[in-house]
Amino acid sequence: MTLSTAVRSPSSSLRAPDLAAYTMQVRGLTQALAEPLSPEDCGAQSMPDASPVKWHLAHTTWFFETFLLRRYVRDYREFDPQFGLLFNSYYESLGARHPRPARGLLTRPSLSEVLAYRAQVDTALGEWLSGGLDDDARALLELGLHHERQHQELLLTDVKHLLFQNPLQPAYRTDLKTPQNRPLQPMRFHEVAEGLIEIGHAGAGFSFDNETPRHTQLLQAHRIADRPVSNAEYREFIRDDGYRRADFWLSDGWAQVQSRGWQQPLYWHDDLQASFSLGGTQALIDSAPVSHISFYEADAYARWAGARLPTEVEWEASANDLPVSGNFVDEDFLQPTAHAQTQDIPRLHQFFGDVWEWTGSAYLPYPGFRAAAGAVGEYNGKFMSNQMVLRGGSCVSHADHLRASYRNFFYPDARWQFSGIRLAQDVS
Question: In the predicted model, what is the mean pLDDT of residues 391-415?
Fold first, then answer.
């Protein structure tokens, strides 16, 4: 099976010992993120879209066992042949799977058994990585590491949603850094001229298949905001009856507001002054980017503000020349932070980290996209329907996982991710 259309050629020049160390570093972070949690925390599932921590720990391990060890390690013995049924996520070609909404019912295997599973696979990975890897093996390993980065982020967002269901609203960690509330400069819009541009991944670095092929797009003249929308600005939308005026909302979005009783972003308190975070309940940071809003809410806010959401082409065009720097998981805030701005230096802020930014673009294949054959081809392509694209990463993403061409995607009613708003405007 060729993987060239599923993942790009490995970009790393790491030699085998360094590659093994990096692999163990990525694997170790997942386990470290679970350490503040009890076994009871790790087994619970708060909603069908979320997964228990124990499942994340096992699924990422199953990925390496299934796609790498079983293929490349002679006489490798699976930890438990039944784990494929329990911890396969959506790979139809690999057989039957336990239903996603019922993952929280998997009281067995225990957390200790799952950790033993990780230990066996990590030992086998380390031994395998001590030898040389061909290009296909290295590409699969790199895919597995970026897959684990995705689940590290999901683990934290799922834990936040789980702990929010507890009436005591306990903190995931009580030692997280607290963001500062900084002065917020007025939002400025940067004008971008019309022209032909290329978007999509190019070069030797890693990308997922949905970032390719690189292709030419007509970029319409537009303006794009220099920063994301803040909590204070979104509060004004709420106070102006933003959730009570149907004229701001797409029909499907208005139906969600009515049926689910949305009145403010997920995790905000009714007084609009505090919210639940991974550090427990805290006062809202007014100048921090608003987060945990759906595409429908982002779109409604944009209409209220006399603007719109940027297309993913517009977003990528502005982000292409920016460094991938910002507030990521290793900053240890685990919530969006306010950016220190200055009035005299116009620039674009916070394109990476803090909040995933909804775009106005549907998640569809790029011209010429072809999914790879086999199970790896199921990674992204089959989800290209009924979802919207987000860009830029969040405060629980890892910097080495992101790039300007990265395309995240969620259903438009999703709110439990760290998702926010950057505005754009047409140039008349």
Answer: 97
